[in-house]
Every structure is written in structure tokens, then in C-alpha cells.
Amino acid sequence: MSLRPMILAALAAVLASCGGNLPNSAVSRHLAGRYAGALSDSTAVPTVIRDRDIKVPDMSSPVPLLDQLRTELAKSDPDGAYAGITYDLTRGNTLPRDWIVQTPDIWGLKASALPPGHSQALVQLVHDLIASARRRVDISLLQPAPDGAFLAAIRQALQELAQRHRPIQVRFIIGQYPPDNVDVPAFYKALTDGFDLGRLTVSVAAFRSCVAFDDCDSYSWNHSKIIAIDGAAALVGGHNLWAKDYLMDEPVSDLSMRVKGPAAAGAVRFIDRLWEYVCANLNQKDSIALASTTGSCPPPAALPVRPGRGGLPILGVGRLGAGITKDFANQSELARDLTLASARHDIRMVQQDLGFDLGRADTLFPDSTIDRLIDFLRQGRGDIYIVLSNLGAKGKSGSTYSNDVTLMTLARHLKQEVQRRIELHDPLSRYEIRRGPDPVNAMLCDHVHLAPFRFGPDDRWPGGAPFATHAKFWMVDGHVFYIGSDNMYPVNLQEYGYIVDDAQAAQQLTDAYWTPVWRWSSKAAVSGPDVKDCIFRQVIK
After folding, report:
1. Quick one: which of 447, 379, 420 has its CA closest to 541?
2. Phi-psi region of 319 (alpha: psi -120 to 50; beta: other; left: phi over 0)
């Protein structure tokens, strides 16, 4: 999520006035107990795991990892209401030759050598995907609405579809956060004005599902980024279609992936669930708006079930956030924690942040995820690599790509949590007189590789602005990975992404993305065995 500066003060004021919760899906450890025995949208992930007897996948089992995950996720949905929506295991998928979509792809360049048109390929891809539709186009985004070259590409693609005189349904659904709203009629007009739609039906909706004043007592809006075509092909990941942040100088780095096959239909079913909420709540004029060719809500996709021709299983995982349902529907975070808990050798991640600080005295961390990382470390399984956006990173639009959580704040939290675990197991350990190096420091400095994002030899743009990454990527043991919209820092929004367990695809992603990320970011690492002044040794307990 990229929150623009104006929202920070607004949300902080709302918090102060109404006592609502931040958009925090990872309910803090001291609050988790109040939800014991419950299974609702407010239930903490560790509580769901405990109460539903959910098991960590066994990497040595002959049962494929994704099948194990799907079985365990189903335990969090006893009525099966969200099967195929927030968790959807499909087979027969393929990855196109250019399935890895990363911008800007400028590894190794100096910051001053950013080439003109560095990310034009993304604009062309958006156009080509939409223009290839034969029956339907489904697009899910975060505000603001697509602009600049992205808007022009979408508009051109719609004109091409209209000229084919096929009955094609086009749906845009956009998450909007306070205090702003999307000008839905203006965006609809920008998409459609000046040409004959023919047999096209275009619908645009913007919504948020909860803003603390409601009985859901949180903040929630759509944060997924999906372009799905005919339920047969999809682009899913982190990319917003904002020209200033992605196409101009000082662009934000981001990552998405393309799929072909039934996994794309799963993304459409997730979008259908968002539309179901919108269409049932059109009377909420302050938080939901609609404009369409027909003047009414579009019908659901009702996609036919078609087996794919490929051999790749993909697990689609989503989250419905707050306000849409009172049921637990956060299989995205649950799947992530279960997969991290199954790691045997290494964990790699590229994230905007791991902490969330919104005008608070304390910083929120994803407690259940942090616990999985600490389990991994204390059991001596291997190494954790973490690359985060740089402090103060912003896009040209003014959007922020930093939650103002310093690497020192994160390091302090990790160290405190390791120490807490040790003392929980052995309460007297805090009184022991240490006669050698601090074992907690040694473990963290040797096995946690923490670094700010870099793409080349420089540490900032020529004008002094820090580099930004908006990727939501993690990989376990070099063969299981996630690409989607779900940040690791604790927010409770609508999210969607894919988990893939395939050695060949993981190697392609490693070669094209992770290896260059770590090659350059590691030069600025603040921890790891080769770092002289390891940040964990600087933490004062």
C-alpha cells in the first residue's frame, strides 16, 4: 500500500476521535487472547491456527506443498464459503515467456543513467492484455484511477474492442481511502468519451468497506492489483497504474506476474466478491460510487469451468479485509505464515516495510509472521534475507513508499522478540552473567541479512531522493514463492496474489529478480556475517 501524505494526518485524526483500530490484520499478541475460540474477521491468525488445529506443511511429505496448504486453509473456512475466492488451488496453468513483470528493469545502472521510456513495456502490456479480450475484462486497482500513458493505453484498447462489435463486459473496481474519493463519473467519461462503445458494457466502481466509524471498527479498502482477461489470463502483483510513480524519473520498483489458465478465473471470482459487496451497498454514497453503461451494477462473471492446458499448479490466496464479511477470510496471511513455518533452508523477501507506523507512539509489526521467522532462526535452519524500501521513499505523485520504520526499529524489535522467547522458555536466563559474546546478537548477525533496496551502485537518485520498492515478494527454500498485493506489514485490506511451488519458475524468478536485488542491496546490508558493524550489536535492550 502506498499512502499519500494527506491521508496520514486524516487517519491519525480519525483514530484519535473514534478510537478505531488501524488497518491491522495481524492483531497484536496482547489482544489475540480476547478472540480465543472465535472464528471471525477479527480473529488473529495464530488463534485460527490453534483453534482449528491447522498444521504446518511438511516439506518431506509426498503430498505436494500446495495441496497441503489448500487442505489446511480449508480448515479456516468450515462452511467452504470462500473456497475458490480467497483460496483457490488450480492446475493446468502456464507461465508465458515474459511472465515476470518488473519495472524498471535497470539492474546495475547508475541512478543517473535511467533510460527514457524505461517502463513503457508495462504500458504496452496493459494495452495488449485488454485488447486481447473476447468476452470480458476485469480490473482491480487502488486509487487514484489510472492516468497518463496508462489511461491512454486502456482507452485505446477499449476503442479497439468496440470496433470488433463483440459483446464484451469491462469492469473496473478501485479501492478508495479517506479523505479522498475517486471521481467515478469523470474516470468513466475519460475511458469512454468520444467513441461508440458498440457492444461494450463498461462499469466503474470505487469503494471502501470500512473506516472505523462503522461497526467493523477498522480501516479497509481494496488494495489488490489484477488485470484478468476472459478468466483465462491475468496480470497480478504490486503494480499500480500511476504514470508519475512508474513512468517518469525516479520510478518506484515493483513486481507482478502473468499467468494463463484457470488461476486467472480464481482472480475473477475474487473480484466478483468485491463487486457483490459494492452492488449490495450502493446506498452508502460516502464510500461507494458507480458509473456504468447500463446505469446499474454489472452481473457476476459466471465463468465456465475450463481445464487448463499447462501443468503448473498455482494457489491463489486473498483477503477480504474488514466490512465485507464477519467471517474469517484472510487466507492470504494464513498461507504465508504456514509456508514460512515450513522453511528448511532459507527465506528471502523484498517488501516495502515490515512495520507500520501511522502517527502512533508504537510501531505495529506482523506478530505471527515475526514469530515464524524467529522459530526458523532458533531452530538453526538457515538464513533470512530481507530487503526493504528506503526510509523516506516517495513517488513523484507524492505517494509514500516508506512507513517511517527505521532499520534500527526493526532490528530492535527482532532482538527483543528473540530475547522474549528465550526468557519465556527460561525465565532465569535474564539474570545469568554472560562470559562471552551475546548469543542473541551472534545468531541475528550471522543469519539475518537485512538491507535497504538498491538496483545499482548508487544509494539514491541524483536529486537526493531515496529509492523506493513496492514489491510484495517472498520465497522459501528456493522453490516456493509469492507475488501479489499483500504487504507483510500489518494492514487489513482486500488483497490477492499467487503462491507457486515450482523449481523451474523459482529459478527463473531468482535469476531475473532476486539475484540482482540481493547483489546490489547487499552492498548496503546492515547485518550478516560479512557486515562489520552489525546493526543488532548496536541495539540497546
Report:
1. 420
2. beta
Under DSSP, is residue 417 helix (H, G, I), strand (E, B) or coil? helix
What domains appear along the chain, each with residue ranges and CATH number?
5-538 (3.30.870.10)
pLDDT per residue rounded down to tens, the chain (541 residues): 555 444 544 454 333 333 333 343 344 444 444 444 558 888 999 999 999 999 999 999 999 999 999 999 999 999 999 999 999 999 999 999 999 999 999 999 999 999 999 999 999 999 999 999 999 999 999 999 999 999 999 999 999 999 999 999 999 999 999 888 999 999 999 999 999 999 999 999 999 999 766 667 678 999 999 999 999 999 999 999 999 999 999 999 999 999 999 999 999 999 999 999 999 999 998 899 999 999 999 999 878 777 778 899 999 999 999 999 999 999 999 999 999 999 999 999 999 999 988 666 789 999 999 999 999 999 999 999 999 999 999 999 999 999 999 999 999 999 999 999 888 865 555 545 555 568 899 999 999 999 999 999 999 999 999 999 999 999 999 999 999 999 999 989 999 999 999 999 999 999 999 999 999 999 999 999 999 999 999 886 5
Contact between 176 and 182 under an 8 Å Cβ cutoff? The reply is: yes
Give yes or no for a contact between 272 and 494, defined as CB atoms under 8 angstroms apart. Answer: no
Alpha-carbon span 494 to 1, nearest angstrom: 11
Q: What is the pTM of this model?
A: 0.93
Separation of alpha carbons 512 and 13, rounded Å: 43
Q: Is 198 left (phi over 0), alpha (psi -120 to 50) or beta?
A: left
Helix count and strand count (H, E) for the chain: 15, 17
Beta bridge partners of 94: 260
Of the candidates 35, 41, 38, the one whose C-alpha atom is nearest the C-alpha of residue 217 is: 41
| Whole-angstrom distance, CA of residue 95 vs CA of residue 320 | 26
Displacement of CA 337 from its chain's centroid (Å): 14
Residue recorded with cell 511438511: 58
Q: b/e string for 454-491 if b means 16 or more Cβ within 10 A? A: bbbeeeebeeebbbbbbbbbbbbbebbbbbbbbbbbbb
What distance in Å separates the CA atoms of residue 244 and residue 46, rounded to the nearest whole number?
A: 39
